[in-house]
Amino acid sequence: MSLQVQQVDINEAHEPSPALKSLFSIVESVSKDKLDVSTRSKVDIKVEPHEVESMVFGKWMAMILLCGPDLEVTFKLHYDLPIAIKILESCLPKGLSNDPQGKVSDFFQELCNTCAGEVKAILDKQKIVVGLSLPLSLRGSDEIMFSQRKNYHHQSNYWLLATDQGNLVCSTHIDIVRPERVAHIEVPKEPIKTKKRKIAFL
Fold first, then answer.
1. Which one of 15, 68, 129, 200 is most buried, by most CB atoms within 10 A?
2. Structural contact between residues 9 and 53, judged by C-beta atoms closer than 8 angstroms
């Protein structure tokens, strides 16, 4: 049996609601800040509309779910091992000589965790209650198993975190269950005060 992949324009969708736009901006900003602090690298956000033949952006991905009665947010970090190793080796004096794949997997799972924790804190301030799942590490090919539905209250956002060592693809998938309960979501005028800690390797 052959698998046929339909060509998809990942930016072709209904116009997102204001709440979705704000939440997309929040997650983008948090992902940049957390990678910047964790790797001590200069990180830039690049949003580049492009067509792809599948929804697979890397051999591996880490993901985490924020879920509450009003909305669900899935954050994914897609990466290939060679670029991920370069990014981590640039900030680790001893490098990744022992079990590099395991350490990279642990790092990106924890990066997802810290990003989700920051987003949760922002939503808490705006009276939106969500809980966090445990972060997962999956093969990038598993992405084809996820639904790509798009409508006014369920959309996806894709962006690049650009570093000197290479780019990482991030994605957010948001499903608003109760639009009237989250219509007030906005980007904070001042950053939430959380501990700016690096991700430690045991």
1. 68
2. no
CA–CA separation, 53 vs 135, rounded Å?
A: 27
Q: Which of the four pLDDT bands, split at 50, 70 and 90, describes residue 6?
A: very low
The more confident residue out of 59 and 93 is 59
Query: What stretch of H or E contains 11?
Result: none
Domain extent at residue 90 = 14-180
What is the C-alpha separation between 60 and 119, in angstroms, rounded? 23
Checking if the pLDDT of 193 tops 80, the result is no
- Give the DSSP H/E element, type plus range, for residue 166: strand 166-176
DSSP class of residue 184?
A: T
User: What domain count does the chain have?
Assistant: 1
For 1, the token pair is 């049996």
- What CATH number has the domain bearing residue 57? 3.40.1550.10
Residues pairing with 73 in the sheet: 66, 174
CA distance linking residue 87 with residue 185, whole number of Å: 33
Do 36 and 160 meet the contact criterion of CB atoms below 8 Å apart?
no
CA dist list (Å): 98 to 57, 85, 108, 202: 26, 12, 17, 12
**Residue 23 lies inside a defined structural domain of this protein:** yes
